[in-house]
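Q: Here's a chain of 247 amino acids. Please give me its 3D structure as tokens.
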Amino acid sequence: MNLTYADGIAAALTTLALEGNAAALKLRLPSGWELTPFEGDDVRERALQGATMLVVFHEVYAVRTHNGHPVGLPQVSYIAFASRARNQSTGALALIHWCTYTEDPASVPGKYKDGRLAHITRQQTFTKQKRGETHVRETFSAVADTGAVELSLAYRQGGSVIWLTADEPDLPLVAANDPAIVRWYQEDQVFDVVRSEGLKVDQTSQVSLVVQGELADVFDGKERIVAVFLRRPYLRRVYLQSVGPSA
């Protein structure tokens, strides 16, 4: 597969992995894709076991493009919603990117054609009173014309720490609104898993996620938080499949 560099970010991410309303999530997948919960034996699969969607709260510090000229805000906050699914024809797994709430007008509709403009506010505090022990409290609010997302989270830093690097692009994300759009991620990251049913870790003292409006069918009050993990630091490089013969 021929891939060409498209863009990259340096960011901090807070991610909630949830088991949500399967019937509603299936309606957000493109034709020919089957909702596929996380499962498997490696540590990341075990950490997310049973989750059917990821809600990823981004704080982007820097953006790099292939031509060196970023468009939009150089530092931006946004929320991405994605679900893992399997292509019923090929059997290939991918994350289906089906919604974004962003404060950047240049990202509407955005690379995945699912962006909604939102007013975003965010707070984060770090408290250290004992040697080697840091407590974090963060809130993240996004209010759009079509809905709203409110996160309140408190935890002790340093749960189950997982180092992950990739030598080549290995994570495909497919746009739900246009499955011809496939962006391949290559990521260097440190996962701090502060809550996981699969790993039997829970260092959270508060987790509250309230979603209203257009996503109320997915977040119907019966959703279950499977895991909470942080990625700090996080470096991502994105590649697109080249068209035509390679040079």
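Q: Can you summarize the key feature?
A: The CA atoms of residues 168 and 186 lie 6 Å apart.
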